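Study this:
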Amino acid sequence: MSRALLGRGGRALESGAAPELVRSAVVDGIVMRWEEHGTDGGGLPVVLVHGIPTHPRLFRYVIPRVTDGASRCYAWELVGFGASMAEGLRRDISVARQAEYLAAWMDFLGIERAVLVGHDLGGGVVQRLAVAWPQRCAGLVLADSAAYDNWPVPVVRAARAMSGAIERLPPALMKPALFAGMINLGHDNTTRLSESIELHWRHYAAPIGPAAYAHQLRSLDTRDTRAVAGDFAGLAVPGRVVWGDRDPLGLASAERLAGELRAPLRRIPGARHFTPEDHPDVIADAIRAVLAEDAALSAPH
């Protein structure tokens, strides 16, 4: 399926966004969805994983800046998020389990090695995958990532505490009270802020939205990231850590990740949490740098 995405009311996205190229398949009994962009020019594939409360469109401005090279980009949708909310309602959608779903999906597509890119919860997912299956990870880019015990941030913890009430709300009441507030705290680009709210809200606006959101919130558990803390030293792959210096997740975890991964840390002055939307050039630069490092390491000497 291929279509250019319009915002609610038919408002087009800013120019420079990748078209919405969605694919789906049944993998281990689960309907999984992803966006697929670019051509296979012999370079490593790039797998991008979003977090909460977003979906693969989070990377719509990053993808064109990466696929202008020789790499194919796959933006995988977490089970139970976005258009896949129904698939997650009666399943374990924890960060730990999502890493297993991601590995199964990579097996299905025949992706043996890839540069793994994760934002927010997606960062925790790719950390888990890289530690459990290091042979699958050719490089790692973590952008404003869940890590250690730096998450959930207070606004998300507050929402999680109210998950029982949230699942009984009409979607229209959930948007101003909870969803918009969470997104609002994460942007420094006001144009992208309004676009982001419309774009990521569209799936939560469905009747299933409040129950799916409550299930997502209940699945947040720092044990999933704390379990791999200290295991990054064994990952001998190129890496980058990219962080908004006003992100509520805080810079301490960014500095720790960069140190343990032996990776450069790129701080974005004034940036908040949703850096793939507000600062796609910086995220894409980090991905391209990792691709270039891997190519140099793999070249015959």
Q: What stands out?
A: The longest strand covers residues 137-145. Residues 83 and 203 are 6 Å apart (CA to CA). Strands lie at 2-3, 20-27, 30-37, 46-49, 73-76, 114-120, 137-145, 239-244, 265-268.
